[in-house]
Specification:
about 450 residues, Aspartate Aminotransferase, domain 2, binds pyridoxal-5'-phosphate, alpha/beta, about 40% helix, Aspartate Aminotransferase, domain 1, five-stranded mixed β-sheet
Length: about 450
């Protein structure tokens, strides 16, 4: 029996949730075009759609929001955030943005020309979408074990350094306007990146003069994995590890909706002053003045407190243990997941759970639908629907190597009994797996189709 670490907090405000009847769930899913993004939140019992912006804020965060400064320019809230930014991330310049993709949009808009390549361990869907929207070619160069769901590797999010070097040599530096890495690797199981790998990636980018930008969404969780697993870091605090990680990069994009534990917010940070000047101008055009960047003063204060709370060791110990509890309980029940469990989510291997559904018939979509129908649980397909695309050179439909369904665990929201219920629902699905069928897409937009695609059961 996996162990569960008691929550290092107690509940002082509650939000009722309800499990509606099976027939009502079936009707709701049909009305949503079988896309779980189209469901009304009140028709969902347990919502693992995302850990982004869905966390519970602490009383310290709410208190900070009450004392916020809503001045248009130069607000005290901005300077409180800046002090925390300087302390943790240490980049020379930053602007707040309303969320992660706003930072990605600005960066892609300023740096990427059509036909250029942007390497990373694995780009997340919004990063990929923003780069493709500028004609860029996001390229994933993660270590090979990341594609083996059962491979228990400590740092499964590491980039393959030999592949990165060969890629730069083949592509030519002139065709690579920036290089990235995602910590932790959300698209590949929420797996961490080691400090050794960050150091090596940084050295290669530096050698070729390619700006190195970290997608920092889950930096605190990544830092704690380094503390637990990487030799030489056991005695360092998460904030010390975070500082070292960011000292290796030229900048970062961040959705604070993850390890800022806020409902909205993010930032774009860079060391280069010229680039920053262009970022500020772009921000003013699209998001707002550089000291608020599309956010209210209270959002800036909530972020400043949230970044520090996300680095608290007792919180991080519980956070990683809670996710591991769900993952190990599912493995005990025979449900295939990406191993080892990551920090923010458990990713089920839909191809392995539903081997009778061919990948072209969307096993991940079938599993996401089954979870809702069987237990009122919402989880995200991160497989063929989210990551399949048409190759711009050949016109061929490219299927991703993995067909995953992600149950992302909102921070400080669900308790052990919610996780136990989830395991019971999945056991029931597995017991009648042969009765589930695939899906066909009836509508899809050109980019980021999983948010609005419509489906039909086969
Ligand atoms: C790794 C990663 N990068 C970028 C983003 C985009 O952030 P946002 O949803 O705040 O735009 C996300 C959000 O899920 C993410 O997980």
């Amino acid at each position: 029996m996996p162990t569960y670490i008691p929550e290092p907090f107690r509940i002082k405000m509650v939000e009722p949730i309800h499990l509606i009847e099976p027939a009502a769930r079936a009707a709701a899913l049909k009305a949503a075009g079988y896309n779980i993004f189209g469901l009304r939140a009140e028709d969902i019992f347990i919502d693992y759609l995302t850990d982004s912006g869905t966390g519970a804020m602490s009383h310290h965060q709410w208190a900070a929001m009450m004392a916020a400064d809503e001045s248009y320019a130069g607000a005290r809230s901005y300077y409180r955030l800046k002090a925390v930014m300087d302390d943790i991330f240490g980049f020379k310049n930053f602007v707040p943005t309303h969320q992660g993709r706003a930072a990605e949009n600005i960066l892609a808009n300023l740096l990427v020309q059509p036909g250029q390549y942007i390497p990373s361990n694995m780009h997340f869907d919004t990063t990929e979408g923003n780069l493709r929207a500028r004609g860029g070619r996001p390229t994933n160069l993660i270590r090979a074990e990341a594609y083996d769901p059962q491979a228990r590797v400590d740092f499964k999010g590491d980039m393959d350094i030999a592949k990165l070097r060969a890629f730069i040599e083949e592509t030519g530096v002139a065709n690579i306007p920036l290089g990235m890495i995602t910590i932790t690797n959300n698209a590949g199981g929420g797996q961490p990146v080691s400090m050794a790998n960050l150091r090596a990636v940084s050295a290669v980018y530096k050698e070729y003069g390619i700006p190195f930008i970290i997608d920092a969404c889950r930096f605190a969780e990544n830092a704690y994995f380094i503390k637990l697993r990487e030799p030489g870091y056991a005695d360092k605090t998460p904030i010390e590890i975070a500082r070292e990680m960011f000292s290796l990069a030229d900048g970062a994009t961040m959705s604070a909706k993850k390890d800022g534990i806020v409902n909205i917010g993010g930032f774009l940070a860079v060391n280069n002053d010229d680039l920053f000047q262009r970022i500020r101008n772009e921000l003013i055009l699209r998001e707002g003045f550089p000291t608020y960047g599309g956010l209210a003063g209270r959002d800036l204060d909530a972020m400043a407190v949230g970044f520090m709370e996300a680095l608290d060791e007792r919180y991080l110990e519980y956070r990683l243990a809670q996710t591991a509890y769900l993952g190990e309980s599912l493995l005990e029940a025979g449900i295939p997941i990406i191993e080892p469990p990551g920090a923010h989510a458990i990713y089920m291997d839909a191809k392995a759970l539903f081997p009778h559904i061919p990948q072209t018939e969307l096993p991940g979509q079938a599993l996401a639908a089954a979870l809702y129908l069987e237990g009122g649980i919402r989880a995200a397909e991160l497989g063929t629907v989210a990551f399949g695309y048409t190759d711009p050179d050949t016109g061929k439909e490219i299927l991703p190597a993995l067909d995953l369904v992600r149950m992302a665990i909102p921070r400080r929201v669900y308790t052990q009994s919610h996780l136990d219920y989830t395991v019971e629902v999945l056991k029931r699905i597995a017991a009648k797996r042969a009765s589930y069928h695939g899906y066909r897409i009836t509508y899809q937009p050109r980019l980021m189709r999983h948010f609005t695609a419509q489906f039909e059961p086969l």
